[in-house]
Design brief:
- With about 375 residues, this protein is of the alpha/beta class.
- The protein has 2 domains: about 10-155 and about 290-360, Rossmann fold; about 155-285, 3-Layer(aba) Sandwich (Rossmann fold), CATH 3.40.50.2300.
- The protein has 12 helices and 14 strands.
- The strands form 3 sheets. Strands 7-6-8-9-10-13-14 form a 7-stranded mixed β-sheet, with helices on both faces. A 5-stranded parallel β-sheet has the order 2-1-3-4-5, with helices on both faces.
- The radius of gyration is 20 Å and the shape is globular.
């Protein structure tokens, strides 16, 4: 199936997201009230250079929750995804999280990014409020002490970069540089590359940074291009990645570019256009453009049934999967007569090691069972090959 990119209409999404919060739900106790909606709080970027990531993930999640609610919700209680824009800025994410805590939401869901999620972490730990399926692979959100606080659905950046380096070394490409965001996200990715290289007796030939929500890559290009690296691994979002690829090629760089999944595959392809040819991206969910995986088949069927003008996309399918996992956990909690926060946490714990739509759930590491990661390559006509 062709990868038909869609230009997401932010205004329409914001209108839809706002509509989801109306309907007479007032006060701070409705989330835990047996008669009210089950409210999930999501802080993510709906504006700024990283907006497409948040919009696409939230659209995918909403697709499933709309489907669930159309079938009667959970015990006749609707599931409400309350999405607030943080622009991918930690301070705004903290303010959003404080609002969710004050409103006594059932859980936090689909937070976007490492710096934002890490900034909110002390608040949700204190409130004993679970964060489900954050859109980040940071090691700081995977510490054992957070086992019943943060439920990571996606693979870590260490998992992604390990696959990258293993593939590159097998091809004889050992001169590897790193271009990364100058924050906790970029540092986590850099550490992953460093550790993976060390396991092969190698080290990065050079590194350079870009500030969060910035496209100013000029200095990074001057630093890295002269090094003659075989590959530059990028740990940033699509706007900075596209700017760097374009500027590096103009400066004469002839090597390859590898990106971790958080870059936003469709957004990067759209930003680069024909210049996307040959750019590699690791993926933490199966291809949404094929029907060989049960998750992709279910996702495509849901898109078709909804009648919405959405197209298959990695970020939106990850949002759909995350919502699907929450839905299964809520059904289990309701069946056990524990449809509240503690019951949801217990149900999530019980899901570890199971599968949802053919996707392995590994909230905690399982010996001998690596998390799902695969490589994909962009083409100049907007397709994605895996």
């Amino acid at each position: 199936m062709q990868d038909k990119r869609v230009e997401w209409n932010r205004r329409q999404f914001m209108t839809a997201a706002a509509a989801m919060t109306v309907g007479g739900l007032t006060g701070a106790s409705y989330a835990q009230d047996a008669g009210g909606s089950i409210v999930l709080g999501q802080s993510c970027a709906l504006s700024g250079p990283s907006a497409q990531l948040g919009i696409q993930f939230a659209q995918g999640a909403k697709l499933y929750f709309d489907q669930l609610n159309a079938q009667g919700g959970i015990g006749r209680r609707l599931v409400e995804l309350r999405t607030m824009d943080d622009g991918y800025e930690p301070e705004r994410c903290v303010a959003n999280t404080q609002k969710f805590i004050a409103d006594d939401v059932t859980a936090l869901f689909g937070y976007l990014g490492t710096p934002t999620s890490m900034a909110a972490l002390p608040l949700l730990q204190k409130a004993r409020l679970p964060l489900i399926a954050p859109l980040t692979g940071a090691a700081g959100l995977r510490e054992p002490r957070l086992a019943q606080v943060v439920f990571n659905l996606r693979a870590s950046y260490a998992d992604e970069t390990a696959l990258m380096v293993r593939q590159l070394v097998s091809l004889g490409l050992q001169k590897i540089a790193v271009f990364h965001q100058n924050d906790a996200y970029g540092q986590s990715g850099l550490e992953g590359v460093t550790q993976a290289l060390q396991s092969h007796g190698l080290k990065a030939v050079g590194t350079a940074t870009v500030e969060r929500n910035s496209r100013d890559v000029a200095q990074a290009v001057k630093t890295l291009v002269p090094l003659g690296a075989d590959v530059i691994v990028q740990v940033c979002t699509y706007a900075a990645s596209a700017a760097f690829v374009r500027a590096a090629r103009q400066a004469g760089y002839g090597g390859q570019f590898y990106n971790v999944s958080f870059v936003g595959t469709s957004a990067l392809a759209q930003a680069l256009g024909k210049e996307a040819e040959g750019v590699v991206v690791t993926q933490v969910v199966p291809s949404p453009f094929k029907t060989s995986h049960p998750l992709a088949r279910e996702f495509q069927a849901a898109l078709h049934k909804s009648g919405a003008s959405l197209q298959p996309d990695y970020s939106s399918m990850e949002g759909y999967l995350a919502a699907r996992v929450v839905g299964e956990a809520l059904k289990s909690a309701a069946g056990a007569g524990r449809l509240q926060r503690e019951g949801l946490v217990a149900a999530l714990e019980a899901m570890n090691g199971q599968q949802v739509a053919g996707f392995p759930i590994a909230f905690r590491p399982q010996p001998g069972k690596p998390r799902f990661v695969e490589l994909s390559m962009l083409t100049g006509d907007g397709k994605v090959r895996v």
